[in-house]
Amino acid sequence: MADEPPPLDDDGLGDGPRALPSNIEAEQALIGAVLVNNDVADKVASFLEAKHFFEPVHGRIYGAAMAQIDKGRKVTPVTLNAYFEMDDALADVGGSAYLAKLMGAAVTVDHAEDYGREILAAYGRREVILRCDAIVEMAWAPKVDDTADLYVTALNEVVDDLSAEAVGDAMVSMGDAVDAAAQNAEEAAKHGRIIGATTGMACLDRAIGGFEPGNFVVVAGATSMGKTQLAMVLAHNAATDAKDPRPTCYFSLEMTYDQLGARQLARSSGIDLKRIRTGQVTTADNMYDTVKLAQNIPVWIDDTSDLTVAQMYARCRKMRREHGLGLVVVDFIQLIKPGKIYRGNKTAEVGQIAKDLKNLAKDLAVPVVAASQLRRPDQSRKDMRPTMSDLKESGDIENAADIILLLYRHHYFHPERPADAEEGFLWEKHIDRMEVIVAKQRQGARGLTVPLYYQETTGRITDPDHKDGQQNCEAL
Prior knowledge:
Number of domains: 2
Radius of gyration: 28 Å
CATH superfamily of the largest domain: P-loop containing nucleotide triphosphate hydrolases
Shape: elongated
Strand order of the largest sheet: 3-2-4-5-1-6-7-8-9
Order of helices and strands: HHHHHHHHHHEHEHHHEHEHEHEHHEEE
Distance between the termini: 78 Å
Structural class: alpha/beta
Strand content: 5-15%
CATH class of the largest domain: Alpha Beta
């Protein structure tokens, strides 16, 4: 048997073993950043775990900090010290003084994710080296019963294990899947709908069952069709549901928070939005009664422009810690800041954003409702009702979405009453009416049209009123 080659030194040429890849400075800087600003945790929580740190004590500090932050607790060197009073490894590096020292090595929030990626990359390289070294040792000292394909099999296992480590282990048995479905069915029977957020409208809930956790729902309409109004109504209804209130995060990339507040005020009070905006409100309107009631609505608005989906993810995690999270609403898709890969190709940008929003819904286990623009249809079309082909820069929106709702209002395209008596009758019938077309639904029927009452002056959207006082949804 040939002599074993000498181990390599730090330069790959000498007599001593090489040090395993690590970045201690990055570990210190990242942990320090978490201690200085707990919001940094949201930047790295989705990919970085305690085991990825080279220095064991760093891994324990990071793990303890993340566990406390996830519980909504403030983490500082003082609050963490209690967890490490008997930790010999921490004592060896300075104890509580070392925790304080880490804060001095902190990086800014903007660079935290980069440092986290450095730590993860070093961990990946260490795993490759350690696992492959073990196979090399096997090859240098074979056993009598070793087969020819033993080492190839061992290498394949390394590749499989490292691949699984990179993407996570998401496999469950069919038995577990069916058991989960049965439990969901029992809960749905109690609520009378899918376990998730209600739309607040009986006819729409009947058609789509509400918004299930992990669903990506697209509400699409032409400019001024009412998609923002409907998105706001869905957020409000889910948040104020008496049976299952859902704390809601509302990302408004187009309108400011006070503009949304004015719309909410108009809708809740019944006061014409124009009167609110122009100051034509009197004490008789009882506007401030509505203001007081709004204080208890668990909807949080983020009106930051040019947000990426990754930034939304971090802000949603923070809200989940501080207030809980049951629904995310985004208004609207085409204004989300794209990643660098597809920047400049609008169709590809929107397609990737749609996929990222679907992943956001799955990762956070909440429904995500996103408004989207529709192209204004050609005026030569006989039927102006929208179809999925009207989705603006549709890209992969159709594929990523679990539910696609298209909005149509007859008066939008026909604002003047026709002279013909029969057409005039139909025109009158469609005053204050919005149609919601269920263009796609993974878990149910599509092609349904749900009529809703829509009062444009106040933005109020509800089930249509009927003489018998009931919502006539039997056909849905």
